[in-house]
Amino acid sequence: MNKQEELIKVAEEINRCRKCSLWQQATKAVPGEGSFDAKVIFVGEAPGFHEDQKGIPFCGAAGKLLDKLLVLARLKRDDVFITNVLKHRPPGNRDPSFEEIEACRSFLDRQIEIIDPKIIVTLGRFSMVKFLPNVLISQVHGQPRFAQWGERELIVLPMYHPAAALRNGKIMVEEQRDFRKLGAFLEKLEGKEKIEIKKEEKTKDKEQLKFSI
């Protein structure tokens, strides 16, 4: 079974999922979409109204902004994989509960394992804490970090959720800057541009990558 077939299988399981009660009020499940060979996975928090109606992640106002931000990182939507921590919409767009996050955990873990990206970009604090549980998004956004994931070490880049940028002009400026950093960081990983990267001293939670542009 190839990557595409494995991701389709996960999506089918998500569409049938009854592990928590969210499916009862949802219109459609939102497994995620994008390239099965993506170098970058974007992980949001949960589907919103438009996502619930269409079954497509980030297809509302925040999604339109995300498309514009991807351009700043020299990426296209077809280049990446976009999903959420939760695969069904919480009523009224409320915050995800711990039980709901746990119910969906295996789906996201399998998507990451199948795609095997170079970097995971978390959008918002609920997706960030999956990988970086002991940090504040206001202090670490735009900073690539190593995160332990099972027996592997992943590079995680926490960012604000695009919806937060739509509500706050200061966050919008920071979000645009962070996506430009993402583009530069990816070029380094692909060996296209010489950017100094070094490991800082280990902190209490995770080890941070520091790079200059």
Give the gist of this structure.
This protein has 213 residues and is an alpha/beta fold.
Task: Give a written overview of the molecule.
The chain is α/β, with parallel strands linked by helices and 213 residues long. It has a single domain, classed as Uracil-DNA Glycosylase, subunit E. Helix content is 41%, strand content 16%. The protein has 8 helices and 8 strands, in the order H-E-E-H-H-E-H-E-H-H-E-E-H-H-E-E. The chain is globular and about 40 Å long. It starts with a helix and ends with a strand.
Task: Write down the CATH class.
Answer: Alpha Beta
Q: Which architecture name does CATH use?
A: 3-Layer(aba) Sandwich
Q: What do we call the CATH topology?
A: Uracil-DNA Glycosylase, subunit E
Task: Kindly state the number of beta strands.
Answer: 8
Rg estimate, integer Å: 16 Å
Q: Write the CATH homologous superfamily.
A: Uracil-DNA glycosylase-like domain
Order of helices and strands: HEEHHEHEHHEEHHEE
Query: Within the largest sheet, what's the order of strands?
Result: 1-3-2-4-6-5
End-to-end separation in angstroms reads 40 Å
Q: Total number of helical segments? A: 8
Helix content: 40-55%
Structural class: alpha/beta
The largest sheet, given as strand count, sense and whether it forms a barrel, is: 6 strands, mixed
Low-confidence stretches: 194-207
Please state roughly what percent of the residues sit in beta strands, choosing from under 5%, 5-15%, 15-25%, 25-35%, 35-45% or over 45%. 15-25%
Shape call:
globular
